[in-house]
Amino acid sequence: MCTERPTKRKKMVLESLYSIVAVVAATYAVLFGFLKKINEWYYVTRLGKKQNTLPPGDMGWPFIGNLWSFFKAFNSQDPDTFVENLIKRYGKTGIYRTHLFGGPGIIVCSPELCRKALADEHVLFGYPSSAKQIAGKKSLYGISTSEHRRLRKIATNPIHGDEALTSHIEDIERIVTTSLEELATMNRPVNFFYEMKKITFKVIAKIVLGSTQDSVISTMVKCYSDLFPGIISVPINFPGFVFYRALKVKLVYVIKLLIYVFRLTPTLTILNFELYILQARKTLLKIFKEKVKERRAKTMETDRKKEMIDFLMEAEYDNGEKLDDEHLFDLLLIFLFAGHETAAHTAMWATIYLHHHPEMLQKAKEEQEAVLKRRPSSQKGLTLAEIKQMEYLPKVIDESMRRANFAFTLFRRVEADVNLNGYTIPKGWNVLVWSRAVHMDPDIYPNPKEFLPSRWENPGLKGKNFIPFGGGSRICPGSDLGKLE
After folding, report:
1. Residue 317's pLDDT band (cuts 50, 70, 90)
2. Is 476 assigned a ligand-binding role in the annotation?
3. pLDDT for 155-165, tens place per residue?
4. Which of 47, 199, 259, 276 is deepest in the core (most CB within 10 A)?
């Protein structure tokens, strides 16, 4: 009798535990299924009949969408698993619906569809709202197509074409050579990627602003390292979120830029920081406006070389007015950002790949030595003609960009419903042209994970199958300069 009661009690406890576990599991399953459907209901159901022609895919969780699986893939050793998982789940359609970077979107990842998306007149440049807020509403991320076309032409003058590139070779060679010599004398470990960013930032600062100042380069590079993640984050301006931190870092970057260009005082720097906390951006712009006036007063000096900032200061709106200071400042920020990041990544990965393939490194060195042997004794520096004589090094650069895939996607947005191969991309949705998937497609690049510069002996790989700098009317205007660096 005594032994029977504990047994019954134990049985009742176990049954209660089983019931609790079952309820928790059922609740989790229902809640999981409900939460996973919220984005589908909110974004897809409202489309009515058009939802029947949407690409296959998954809209993820409320607010964050598929960002969790995206960052999980990119923090792993194999970031290509993000798109590979879509292919496994929905087949190799080359187009999938998703929810990334704060809104609904369509991932396009086949060469054919990427080409169509980049060429379609209704598929416009469209970075996430976080990018526009951090880079500035008047940066290249936030302006209209007509404005972009006009400013692109102005900004391209000092960085595109043989004459423009030739004018920068001496500065680039001097900055790179001096920086590498300094690194070679260090007797301590260095953060190689950080040093590459410093070098490429010095180069682009010279080209955009016309001067370099070592004392602030390191700080500006660090600020940008904190700022960049916010460009592709969920735009939640609340402590603890990446976007919130990026907005705060933007002020530091802005102030450092003002010091860098116009030699502002530390006291003014601290004041400006407090003003930003009070959201007094207009005060910063007033200060900037005064300094820009001083610089414009020197434009009458005809013997000085024009830099990008000078071309932007001369730029006009359609009504004939000059760019306002806010517009000018946002453009300077984004040119400095975009001008050094890709070059730094490419330089780092090219160095790593060549280190792991000494026979390729030797081949590249022999080519450089051959160029030097042909150089006249009276010639001191590198020339564009010598660069064009190099055949193997450009293959190394192209293969490094293909294999590293720093710019994994090109951001676009549709202004009207677009049909791609029978699938509908709804008006207002983002389009992510997934260049990484194109560059790692084994049907285009056999053994895509191998570093093989020799594959570029096939001229057919260029064009639609190679899009590290984008495509269409908004292809990166600094592609030639980036390769030159």
Report:
1. low
2. yes
3. 677 777 788 88
4. 199
pLDDT score for 391:
93
Is residue 403 a contact partner of residue 349, using CB atoms and an 8 Å limit?
yes
**Residue 336 contacts residue 204 (beta carbons within 8 Å):** yes
pTM above 0.90, yes or no: no
Tokens in use for 289?
């406006």
178's CB contacts (< 8 A; 6+ apart) are none
| Residue 425 neighbours by CB under 8 Å, 6+ apart | 106, 123, 414, 417, 418, 419, 431
CA distance 135 to 209: 18
- Tell me the two tokens of residue 291: 């300094």
Mean pLDDT of the chain: 75
* Closest to 104 in 3D by CA, of 129, 86, 132: 129
Determine contact, residues 425/418, Cβ cutoff 8 Å: yes
Number of C-beta neighbours around residue 389 at 10 A: 13
Q: Which of 386, 349, 373, 333 is nearest to 169 (CA)?
A: 386
Any idea how long the chain is? 485
Q: Which of 104, 70, 76 is closest to 96 using CA atoms?
A: 104
Of residues 401, 399, 373, 404, the one with CA closest to residue 386: 373
All residues at 6 or more sequence positions from 143 whose CB lies less than 8 Å from its CB, including other chains:
151
Q: Tokens 């760019």 appear where?
A: 323
Token pair, residue 437, equals: 């998937």
